[in-house]
Amino acid sequence: MSRHNRAIRLVDRDAHQPTRCITFIGAGPAAAGVVERIAANQAEIDDRPLIIHLVDPYPPGAGRIWRDQQSGLLKLNSMAGDVTMFTDDSSIIDGPIDPGPDLATWAELVRTRRITDVEIDIDRDPELAAELDGLRPESFPTRRLHERYMTWCLERSADRLQPGSKVMWHRAGVVSVSDTESGAQVVELDSGDELTTDLVIYSFGHLGSHVSGEAKFFTDFAQAKEARYYAPAFTADLDYSDIAPGDEVLVRGLGLAAIDLVVMLTLGRGGEFVRDRGELRYVPSGREPKLLLSSRRGVPYRSKIAAPLRGSHYEPRFFTPEIAQQLADSVAELHFYRDLWPHIERELHYGYYLELFTGSPRRVSLPWPEFLEGLETLDLHGEAYRALVERAVPDAADHLDVDALDRPLAGERFESAEELQARVREHMRNDLLRRTDHRYSENTALFVALFRVYLAVAELATVRNWQPESYLNDFQRRWYKFFSYIASGPPGERIEQLIALSAAGVIEFAGADVHVRADGETGEFVATSPSVPGERRSTTLIDAWLPDPSIRNTDSAVLRDLIDSGAGREQVVGSTPSGYVDVRLSDGRLIRAGGGVHPRRYAVGPGTSTPQGGAFARPHTNALSFRIWDRIARAILGELVEIRGAGDHSAAHTGASDTELEQIFDGAAYFQPDTESTR
């Protein structure tokens, strides 16, 4: 962003129509997305100047997760061509469509100097410059390069705000927000400064949490026994320097955070991967610890899909948004696995087998219409359907078993740790082959079907008849974890690296359903699994996953202030608190403790009761994020029209002196729109 050393004097064009002001608490992707939608909708709803404050200790646009100041070894788990912050012709929204480049196209435009306001110095940052030069749609970009894209997207949105509008970044946190008698909002920064603003949007993204429950017990145990315990946190933020070469470390979790951990403790410690007769081999540096990896499934998340589709065009048939809503409306209490899952599972079978039959006809022995008739009518778990699949698909490896897909080690027992390692490596090789080789495009179709189901299910997040336990445990936890395991795993290269690390003995898999306990006599953590006999002991345990977005345990002062003040409330399903901030789906307004919405505050992103669409979107998918951001942006602009109409000048900028602005915005970085920009 264009950063200036002095404050910008804010001058209103019309003293009778003071410039209105909104403040985002958190300036990551959700804030950037709403700003983009504000810029797109501003001319239609309210074309007068607007001041936008972005308050975040991390870089605006990218935020904490995608910031530049982290290891260049850490990557997105999405291909560059699958990442965009811009609406397209698939977007069904009320506001204008304003297309922009996806990450891969942006990189090409930067390389060819058709975008000229992004500078990556080849002398100062040769690795990032080399990555930009080689980035293609199928590449998995680093988070550092993604930060440059996200920053540019936010700058582009600022450029598209109406003339006279300005955007300001405050490198700070927020302590509290309070209401004035006039309705204006006073935002207290942790620097001691205050901002008076018309509207506040809580967009703080993924937050940390205070340790509690089992994590608190393990923390206290480790301190008392001089062991080491790393509670759930952001992998890139933790210091693992106390872990010595050769230390045996128990790791719980095999998702993306665990992959980051493995990368940091292997490649990050000087190891390297080499090709040996086509096979990847790991060459240790000697500084690595020994990582014993475990999880409920006992295997890593499924490799990211890379095989192109080859068969007939797919459109959902058994589980669409309309069907999902009909199912929810048809029962007094909505149970995820009773009412929704049978239809979801049939939809997954439909997407998978449609592609197999039409994309790889030599691997089947029945016509598609004949198979489809059975798929439509038979019990998927009955003998008749199993017989149909066996008759139609000769190779058992081509059969879809959703339960086995989810729990590949379920029921398996191994005589030794060595047998278990061989089995998991075999699983990873097969997974990598079938999700990246063009011959097995039915697995890509399964991903597409699951993604469409995900969008349809997300629309049910706020229906009022959820059975509470099913909502919290089945929908918010098990379903989202299943989706992430199948659809949001690591790049294929990471799976190949795990295979090489396992063969080199640097990592080891502990089996499925691992249980970890603390041994008070020895001061060790003890891991056991039904997959393999015996136990493993270590004085170091790492829980490799992000903290839960729970209000009760949040480390965010401003979120606690929001709930404690009654300006917002925790969502309650039935009589059970969910841990999420309660917002109105139609416009993102916060719901107050006493009921009703707060007239001046909104919330968006992780940790809210709004359906979660992700930090960015896949192009041409009618992305849920864009629909949510557009609704909130239009509500914000509409509220500003109401405030202007009421003649409320309480939060207006009216040409304060440079001295006053320097005091208010001390330490902030500023950027303002260039209305003549052609970006």
UniProtKB/TrEMBL annotation:
- What Pfam families is this protein classified in? NAD_binding_9 (PF13454)
| FAD-dependent urate hydroxylase HpyO/Asp monooxygenase CreE-like FAD/NAD(P)-binding domain boundaries | 24-206
Q: Which InterPro entries match?
A: HpyO/CreE_NAD-binding, L-asp_N-monooxygenase_NS-form
Superkingdom of origin organism: Bacteria
Name of protein: FAD/NAD(P)-binding protein
Give the taxonomic lineage as stored in the record.
Answer: Bacteria, Bacillati, Actinomycetota, Actinomycetes, Micrococcales
